[in-house]
Specification:
Layout: H1 45-54, H2 56-61, E1 66-67, H3 72-80, H4 82-94, H5 100-111, E2 119-123, E3 127-132, E4 143-144, H6 147-156, H7 160-163, E5 174-180, E6 186-192, E7 196-198, E8 203-205, E9 210-213, E10 224-230
Helix pairs in contact: 3-4, 4-5
Amino acid sequence: MRTFCGLAAAFLLAVVPGVRAQLDSAPTPVPLPIPIAAASTAMPAQDIDALRAVHAREIHDLSTFKTAGLQREAIDPYLDSEPGQQFLRELRAADPAAPADTIYARAVEQLASGSTLPDLQAMSAALVKIVPHGQNVSPYSPYFTTSAQLQLASGQCASLADCFGLPLKSEAPLYDVYQIMPKGTVKVFVSQVAPTQELGGLVRRKGGAQQYLLPNRNLWSVPVLIGTIKN
């Protein structure tokens, strides 16, 4: 889910966006439409806490966060293809006043979050995103996923943050799950989340979950909180 998930991210990232929560005062998770298993920890909580204390600035500004995703030699030809042109058209529709080079840079950034070129699919069902508990979904974030992918990640990955390649800034012991609905049948761009690293490799995420890129959020409803899950 990047600031899911990415995700994340980015459901689209219910707990985005490596730590097993042990919170005595944590809110009771809200049941979701599907059972979500608690993911195991990828790194001891005390180690994560130590990194946060020592590297607070770098974590906050994402200055060391790197994605091992698609490179320009793959992205540029894709953007010349019909699916790539569709991606650019939707980015322009989302922000008609933005200069062409800004639109292209956004396309490169979003596509580089994946390790595979996206498949263009028609979507008429809900998508989800996870954000740290108590936070809201950005109105511009393009990174979402499906509830099925979130369920799969919770059972196969050390943490949701690991599967969705989340930075430490977007990782939390609890995630709120937000759902959005398409305004009709909408085209989405589905790729595999790329591996990521942070703090010079001290924190590594394997990625691998499916992400649904939404270059034009105007085609989707306002996010609605539907539950809370563990990382």
